[in-house]
Amino acid sequence: MTPRDRFITALECRPLKGRVPTFELVFFLTMEAFGRVHPSHRSYHQWDQMEEAERELHRRDMADLYIQTARRFEHDAIFLHPNPGNDEETFRLIDRVREETGDEFFLMLHGDATYSVPSGVDMTEWCARAMEQPEQVRGDASQRVDEALERGQRLADHDGIDGFALCADYCFNTGPFLSPDWFDDFVTPYLHRLVRGYRDQGHYVIKHTDGNIMPILDRLVEANPHAIHSLDPQGDVDMAIVKQMVGDRVCLIGNVNCGLLDSGTDEECIESARYALRHGMPCGGYIFSTSNCVYTGMRLERYELILDVLRHEGVYE
Question: N- or C-end of the chain: fewer Cβ atoms within 10 A?
Answer without folding.
Answer: C
